[in-house]
Design brief:
Elements lengths: L4 E7 L4 E7 L5 E8 L7 E6 L5 E4 L5 H13 L14 E6 L10 E2 L2 H8 L9 H14 L5 E5 L9 H4 L5 H7 L8 H15 L7 E7 L3 E7 L2 E5 L21 H10 L3 H10 L2 H5 L7 H9 L3 H25 L4 E5 H6 L1 H8 L11 H4 L6 E2 L8 E4 L4 H12 L1
Parallel strand pairs: 1-6, 6-8, 9-12, 12-14
Antiparallel strand pairs: 1-2, 2-3, 3-4, 4-5, 7-8, 9-10, 10-11, 13-14
This protein binds adenosine monophosphate.
The site of adenosine monophosphate has 12 residues, from helix 10 and helix 12.
Length: 400
C-alpha cells in the first residue's frame, strides 16, 4: 500500500473534528477541532505533532469556511505540517448513517453522495452535516480521493432476527424501520484488537464490546461478524447514556406528553438531552468523574444512577452471551470504559456466572491495551482504547 497522509474529518451539526494521519507510521501529524460553526463565538483549536496547541477565534459561517481554515492551518508556513495540499493523499469522512445502502466503507462518488442523502431521514441531525463536509472538501480539494466510513456499516451483518422490531413488517418494507446500530468503527476496531491481544484468530472468537462513552452501546461479535448491537434505528436505544435514556417502554412517551402537556418532539428532546445518568442523578452531571466522586461520598442519587447504569450494561452482556451461546472476551472501551476501573468492577460484579475474576492491579492501569482479568478467569476481560480516527484513516488508505 502506498504511503499517504489521510485527513480524517468528522462533521457534527456545528462542529468539525479533524486529524491528519500518516498511513505508514500511523502517526497523528496534526489534529484539532472547529466549534460553534455558524454560531457566534466560533473557534478552532489546532495541535501540530510536537508543537503547541493554539486557538483561532474567528467567524466560521459554515462548514466550508471551517474546512478552509483547517486546510490553511495545515499548510501554514510557520505552524503547518505539510508544504501543500498535494501532500494530503486522501480524505476520510465519518458518516453516521449508511442505512442498508452501505455494508462497508466506500470511495465517494456522485452516486455515493446520493445514497448517503437517501439516509438523511434516518439521521436528520448528522447526515446533512456529514454531506456538507464532503461537499466542502470536494470543492476545496477536487483532485483528492475521498472515502466514506459509516458508523452503521459494521452492524450490517446482523441477522434478520436481531435487526427486526416486533412491528408490522410493512414498516420495515416501506420505511426501513429496523435496528442499524452505531459506533460501528469503534466496535470493529476494538474487537479486532481484542483478537490480536489474545493472540487468537478473530474468526474463532465470541466477543462482546462495551463502548461506554457519553454515547454508549454494546455489540456481540461472533466469528468476526457483528450479530447484534444495542443501538437501534437511532442512537437513542439501548444503554443508559450521558443524557440519553436508552431502552424505555414506548408507551412512556404518550404518558409523559399527557402529564407534562408536551409534544412528542419535546419529550424526545427530554429522552435525548435530559435523561440518562444526567436525568437519573436529578440533573447533577452526565460526567462519570463527578458521579463517581459523589458515589464515594455516599450520595444516594449517585449510587442509584451508577447502579442502574452498570446493571443495564450487565443485562446486555447476559443477552449477548445467550445470543452467541457463550463469550470468550468482554472488552471495555471509550471514555468511561477505558478510564473507570470503578464502573468496570461494578459491571463485573454481575458476571460471576461467566467465571470472571478481575486482576485488581491491571484494572487500575490506564491508556493501554490490557487484560484486566486474571489468567484463570474463564472469560477474558480486556480494556482496549478505541481509535476511530485511526480506523477511518486505515479504511481510507486501503480504499485509495
Ligand atoms: P467519550 O464520549 O468516549 O469521549 O467519553 C466521555 C465520558 O467519559 C465523559 O463524559 C466521562 O463521563 C467519561 N470519563 C472520562 N474520563 C473518565 C475518568 N477518568 N473516570 C470516569 N469517567 C471518565
Amino acid at each position: 500500500m502506498k504511503e499517504i497522509n489521510v485527513l480524517v474529518i468528522n462533521c457534527g451539526s456545528s462542529s468539525l473534528k479533524f486529524q491528519l494521519i500518516n498511513s505508514a507510521s500511523e502517526a497523528v501529524i496534526a489534529k484539532g477541532l472547529c466549534e460553534r460553526i455558524g454560531i457566534e463565538g466560533s473557534q478552532m483549536t489546532y495541535t501540530p505533532a510536537g508543537g503547541e496547541k493554539y486557538e483561532v477565534k474567528t467567524p466560521m459561517e459554515d462548514h466550508r469556511s471551517a474546512i478552509r481554515l483547517v486546510l490553511d492551518a495545515l499548510v501554514d508556513k510557520d505552524r503547518g505540517v505539510v508544504k501543500s495540499l498535494d501532500e494530503i493523499g486522501a480524505v476520510g469522512h465519518r458518516i453516521v448513517h449508511g442505512g442498508e445502502n452501505f455494508a462497508s466503507s466506500t470511495l465517494i462518488t456522485d452516486e455515493v453522495i446520493k445514497a448517503i442523502e437517501e439516509c438523511n431521514d434516518l439521521a436528520p441531525l448528522h447526515n446533512p452535516a456529514n454531506l456538507i463536509g464532503i461537499r466542502a472538501c470536494k470543492e476545496l480539494m477536487p483532485q483528492t480521493p475521498m472515502a466514506a466510513v459509516f458508523d452503521t456499516a459494521f452492524h450490517q451483518t446482523m441477522p434478520e432476527e436481531a435487526y427486526l422490531y416486533g412491528l408490522p413488517y410493512h414498516y420495515y418494507e416501506d420505511y426501513k424501520v429496523r435496528r442499524y446500530g452505531f459506533h460501528g468503527t469503534s466496535h470493529s476496531y476494538v474487537s479486532q484488537r481484542a483478537a490480536a491481544v489474545l493472540g487468537k484468530d478473530y474468526k474463532d472468537l465470541k466477543i462482546i464490546v462495551c463502548h461506554l462513552g457519553n454515547g454508549a452501546s454494546v455489540s456481540a461479535v461472533k466469528n468476526g461478524k457483528c450479530i447484534d448491537t444495542s443501538m437501534g434505528l437511532t442512537p437513542l436505544e439501548g444503554l443508559i447514556m450521558g443524557t440519553r435514556s436508552g431502552d424505555i417502554d414506548p408507551a412512556i412517551i404518550e404518558f409523559l406528553c399527557n402529564k407534562e402537556n408536551k409534544s412528542v418532539q419535546e419529550i424526545l428532546t427530554v429522552l435525548n438531552k435530559e435523561s440518562g445518568v444526567f436525568g437519573l442523578s436529578g440533573g447533577f452531571s452526565s460526567d462519570f468523574r463527578d458521579l463517581e466522586k459523589a458515589y464515594r461520598a455516599g450520595e444516594a442519587f449517585a449510587i442509584r444512577t451508577m447502579k442502574t447504569f452498570a446493571y443495564r450494561v450487565a443485562k446486555y452482556i447476559g443477552a449477548y452471551t445467550a445470543a452467541m451461546n457463550g463469550v470468550d472476551a468482554i472488552c471495555f472501551t471509550a471514555g468511561i470504559g477505558e478510564n473507570s476501573p470503578f464502573i468496570r468492577t461494578m459491571i463485573a460484579s454481575y458476571l460471576g456466572y461467566l467465571g470472571i475474576t478481575l486482576d485488581e492491579e491491571a484494572n487500575v492501569k490506564r491508556g493501554e491495551e490490557i487484560a484486566i482479568s486474571t489468567p484463570e478467569s474463564a472469560t477474558k476481560v480486556l480494556v482496549i482504547p478505541t481509535n476511530e480516527e485511526l480506523a477511518i484513516a486505515r479504511e481510507t488508505a486501503s480504499l485509495v
